[in-house]
Structures are given as C-alpha cells and as structure tokens.
Write a structure and sequence with these properties.
Layout (H helix, E strand, L loop, with lengths): L1 E3 L10 E3 L6 E3 L2 E4 L2 E2 L2 E5 L6 E2 L17 E2 L3 H13 L4 E3 L19 E2 L9 E2 L1 H17 L2 E8 L7 H6 L14 H14 L16 E8 L6 H14 L4 E4 L7 H4 L6 E6 L8 H11 L4 E8 L3 H13 L7 E7 L35 H15 L15 E2 L11 E2 L6 E7 L7 E7 L25 E10 L2 E2 L6 E4 L2
Parallel strand pairs: 6-17, 9-12, 12-13, 13-14, 14-15, 15-16, 16-17
Antiparallel strand pairs: 1-2, 3-4, 4-5, 7-8, 10-11, 18-19, 20-21, 20-22, 22-23, 22-24
Length: about 500
C-alpha cells in the first residue's frame, strides 16, 4: 500500500510506505504477515540523536567525558536509513531517550526528557527533540525498516536512571523501586511516548507499524520481578499492537519467561562481561527454552573472526527448534550532512563502522565486518549469499563558498568513491578534477579538514560549476545537483 502525505521538516510530500502489518509473535518466532521474521545488522544507536565526537569532550561536563550532541538533519536521517535498508537491514534497534543533565546548557546539548516544571510533577518530553524521533519513525516506515525502541538507560552516557532520579532527589537505584517517585516518572514517560501523535505521519505511536517492539530500557542489569512485570503490563495496557522486550541483560529472568506481557528476551555480549563468545548464544537459547523470542541486542568490540563466530552461531544454532530472531553488532555511524561520516572510538580502540565499508577502516576490519553482516542477513532469509549492492543514488552537493578551500557533499548511501567534475558553463563540457575520492576517512574532522579542494589555477571573477558522481561495484550514480560559484 502506498500513499502520499505532507511530510514536515524538509521531507514534503514524499511517498510514505505503510507496512501492511505489525510484527507479531508465535511462541519463540517473530512473524511478518505469517512468515518468520529474522534479521541481522550493525547496530545504529543514533538515528535520532547524534554524538559529534569530532568536537571532542565538553570540559564543562563534570563526568569528564561528556560529549557534544546534535540533532540529525532530515537529509542525514534519510541517508542513514537508506544505507541500512539498501545494504540488507530489515530491523534496527536504536538507543534510548536522553535525559537532561545539569551541564547540558554549558555543553550546548538538548535532550528528549526534560525535568518537571514543579518539583513533584512529571517529566516533560522536549518537543524539539521528539520531532526528530517522529521523523525517524516516518522514514523507517517509508523505506521499510522495523524499529526496536528502548525507553531509559541504566547508564548515564545520554542521561539515564540516575539523571531521572535526580529530578526527585532520589538515587539511581530508586529507578527500579516500583514505589518510588522516579519509577512513577518512568511510567509517565512511557505513557507520553506511546500516546504521542507523530507530527509527520499523523499517527499515534501505538499505531505505527514501523515500530516492532518497545524495550523497557537499555542494559537494565538490576531489573527486579516487580519492575519487569509492572512495566511490561503497563506497556501492553497502553499498546496492544507492539511487542515488549525485557531490557535486562547478563541474565535471563525466569519470571519473564512466564509473563504474558513479555515477548522478547534480550542479551548483550561484551568481553568486559565475560560473555562475548558463541557459547553465550547457546546458553541463552537453553535458558529461554523456546518460551520467548530471543534477541542479541548488541555484541562486538572484538576482531572480525570472533564476531563472525558469534554471528554464525546466532544464525544457525537452535535449541529444540528455537533460534535467535535477530542479532546486532555494535555499532554504526552514518554520513554527515556536509560530508564524511560521524565516528565513535570505543575504550577498546575499536571504531564505529561505516556502510558499505572503506579501506580507511581496514585497521578496524570495517569491510570484513560489513561483509560478514551482509552474509548473515542473507542466511537469515534462506539465501546462501547476499545480492550485490544496488548502485548508489546521486550525492548531494552543498553550496560552495570557495572551491579552493572546500567542496562539501553528502555522500550517497552505499557510495564507495566519488568523481568531482567542473565546468565553466552549466551545460558542460565537464572536466574531471578529482577521481576515486573517498569520504570514508576514519576520525574525519570537518572543522579542520575538507573532503576535497579544487587546487587548479582558477581565475578570480570566473563562474564555475561543480557536480559529483558516486560509484560502487555495481555502477555509478547520476550526477549530483550542480553548485555554482563565482571565484572570489
């Protein structure tokens, strides 16, 4: 089914694809239209809020490592979701809703959840933040990506339970106490989100088919039975259309296996937790015993060979017929609005991965990781190997102030290299001034670097025209839009 509606925030009157059905559960299987739904991918945590590592840490953040964040542009979000879907992703788990911290103003940050106006009132959703969340859901609906949406974080990276508790002069552990003010605030956030009307699609979130499941939170390691049962029951009471994930990790809660309001059991594998191995897949499947759907929500920060061992175990292993429904390697970052990629460096030295993978990331085994994920995606749907990548669509060339200083363009989803062309007339002829240009540089710093500069002897006062063509192994795109500039 296809229809057209006005789409806000730079995406006006685009065709939006409506999924025909919600994802449902049949025992240990997910179903889409009666067929088993399985998926693999590279976890994209920041489809709705982006960390700008190129700016470094904010000195005003007392945590010592507090980053700068920014809201993604409409072009960025669309580019990222296209890259995921075109490379084989059927579903994606994103990161949590961010919670306000005292240093946000000094660090120029905005968050999704704001403190109450009066001391004992409920938190507020930041409308400026939520329109980006709306757009993420609308674009996922348009391009065919199912979303897993966790509510609150155990940790304080984006602001989590500790920051929520601080609104009420309570402690981080009070988040798990179902009689606390913090838990009441958490419940109210859930109500506000599920009942929110998407400003782009016009639908209430509970009716958005692009949403696959709500997750109680991220890595809620101290979840108790009352916490999980009460939270899952609330979600199901508010929303009968979507599945519920127990956001606990490092253990399988036996009480969740018998709770009718819990559909999916998740775990995260990391070496620091002594579980980053194929054996953990089998142990989890055995513990769940086919009573619920099994999801590996995150794993990673190790070599490609080890990642592939876990991935292949997740794809092929079963316990009494029950298999993992989905698995995500940590983590993906997408194109920047004006060129290059966002990036993130972990404490282990591993970097985020960029799709479709670039030689500049080979120290991070980027191309190997992208390829092993694409192989798993094909296997999840019964194929031996993935189909070739589609050829890229045109890049988006940005306005040029001085081509000798920088020529910026938003890279095409799945583009590997680019050809830069120049002319002195809008109709050509076009001269190639740069070829096999990559935008995949790791740790790209746009405030100090440029993707490309025109270093030819240019004539001051002359009008110049520029365009860009993207390439990958399947072919090349049509030319980008044309940017014109009179050389200063």
């Amino acid at each position: 089914m296809r229809f057209t509606l006005p789409v806000l925030l730079g995406l006006t009157a685009l065709p939006v694809y409506a999924f025909d059905e919600f994802i449902s559960r049949d025992g240990h299987r997910l179903l889409e239209g009666g067929k088993e739904f399985r998926f693999a991918g590279i976890h994209a945590p920041e489809l709705h809020r982006i960390e700008d590592d190129a700016r470094g840490a904010c000195a005003a953040d007392p945590r010592g490592w507090g980053q700068y964040f920014r809201w993604p542009t409409a072009d960025e979000q669309e580019n990222w979701i296209k890259a995921l879907v075109k490379s084989g992703h059927r579903a994606m788990r994103v990161y949590v809703l961010s919670v306000a911290t005292p240093s946000d103003a000094e660090c120029g940050r905005e968050t999704h959840i704001l403190p109450p106006v009066q001391a004992d009132e409920m938190p507020r959703l930041n409308e400026a933040a939520m329109v980006h969340y709306d757009r993420m859901i609308a674009l996922a609906d348009q391009y065919g990506l199912r979303l897993i949406l966790p509510f609150i974080d155990h940790w304080k990276w984006w602001g989590g339970r500790e920051q929520l508790a601080a609104f009420y002069d309570e402690s981080a552990d009070d988040f798990y106490d179902t009689e606390s003010k913090t838990y009441a605030a958490y419940q109210d956030i859930i109500r506000q989100v599920i009942n929110r009307t998407n400003t782009i699609t016009g639908r209430v979130y509970k009716n958005e088919k692009a949403i696959m499941a709500w997750e109680t939170g991220n890595e809620l390691r101290d979840s108790t039975e009352p916490f999980v049962r009460k939270t899952a029951a609330l979600i199901k009471e508010l929303d009968s259309n979507h599945l519920v994930i127990d956001g606990t990790y490092l253990k399988v809660n036996k009480f969740a296996l018998d709770d009718p309001n819990v559909d999916i059991i998740s775990n995260h594998f990391y070496t620091t937790n002594n579980n980053n191995n194929p054996e953990q897949v089998l142990a989890d499947l055995q513990a769940i015993d086919g009573k619920k759907v099994y999801l590996i929500g995150e794993f990673g920060l190790r070599d490609a060979e080890g990642l592939n061992d876990i991935m292949q175990t997740a794809v092929h292993s079963d316990y009494n017929g029950a298999r993992a429904a989905g698995v995500f390697i940590w983590g993906f970052r997408g194109h920047r609005h004006n060129g290059g990629f966002y990036w993130h460096k972990e404490y282990t030295g591993h970097y985020s991965y960029h799709i479709p993978g670039f030689p500049e990331g080979d120290a991070n085994e980027e191309r190997k990781v992208v390829n092993l994920v694409r192989t798993a995606q094909a296997q999840m749907v019964g194929l031996d190997a993935p189909a070739p990548l589609p050829k890229p669509e045109p890049p988006k060339l940005r306005a040029i102030a001085d081509p000798r200083e920088r020529i910026d363009f938003l890279g095409a989803p799945l583009g590997r290299t680019y050809r830069i062309e120049r002319a002195t007339d809008a109709s050509g002829p076009w001269q190639v001034i740069g070829d096999n240009i990559s935008d995949g540089l790791q740790e790209y710093r746009p405030y100090e670097q440029a993707l490309f500069r025109d270093t030819d002897d240019l004539v001051p006062g002359q009008m110049y025209y520029y365009r860009v063509v993207a390439r990958n192994e399947s072919g090349e795109s049509d030319p980008s839009n044309v940017a014109q500039v009179v050389l200063p």
